[in-house]
Design goal:
ADH-like_N, Rossmann fold, Zinc-ADH_QOR/CCCR, six-stranded parallel sheet, single chain, NADP, 15 strands, alpha/beta, 328 residues, NAD(P)-bd_dom_sf, 2 domains, seven-stranded mixed sheet, Quinone Oxidoreductase, Chain A, domain 1, oxidoreductase activity
Amino acid sequence: MKAMTIQQFGDENVFELNDVNKPELKPGHVLVKIAASSVNTVDTMIRSMGDELPIAPPLPAILGMDFAGTVEAIGEGVEGFSAGDEVYGCAGGLADLPGALAEYIVADARLMAHKANNLSMREAAALPLVGITAYEGLLRAGIKAQQKVLVHGGSGGVGHIALQLAKHFGAEVYSTGGGEQQLALIEELGATGINYKTESVEDYVAKYSSGEGFDLIFDSVGGPNMLNSFSAAALNGQIATTVAMTELDLSEAHFKGLSLHVIFMLIPMLHNQYREQHHHILRELTNIAEAGALRPIVDEQSFSLSEAGSAHARLASGAAMGKVVIDI
């Protein structure tokens, strides 16, 4: 099969299009003919940082975590899937799991689900990693109907999904963005947009919560921005963050009695534990999408398999609106 491989870690030019052996089916797994894969920030981090990250695969490697495609064969012990089924998942591209920048993947059946009938292969490929992250974060933070929810970075990959899911769960949703395009997308998806460049935390807390703060904050920006989340949170508020690799003063979180939930959705893939949870979440995301309450935004630029490096560059440029998708 054709695959984009890397022989070394580095910039986006390290990708090479090669012929490699088609992966062999094994028990508990499904052979999928891949139609599309999407690029996540963690993919670009692995490619550029390599062994500095404990999740990096051994070289040579096939990167790419997300996929959508069609089942070609099922392994021993697999139930619920048949040849010809259209599926999606996040199942490779790190540690010892070969990735999705290839014509085929052998994926653990617990890391995939049937894709939504009303989503294209490109849209479905854009959803798994960000969808699981957003869903897990909101549920771990105990989202409830009528809560005031703030999403930091609501036009980004994870953020625009968290925004839609929070709305689906009945919350009153607000979201920060940094420009006209970003804010327009946030409003289009049903949230109240907040320009963090022109409105201070104090200003929008006063404006939208009568100074009391938000019940739940999904912080897809993280790092130093978590201090803004602490400031924007209500007393005993809940904060879910996807970027916690930082050092912060937790004093304000202490005095406000905040709960902090760190979301690292790769744990089931890395440790082969709780993988059934990813199957469950993907099934829920399919149901929500088919109900018309969730649609991933795909960037206007498209890329072929041989253009994987350009797709990585597109994501890194910050110019993409929505998820960058590679057609296989």
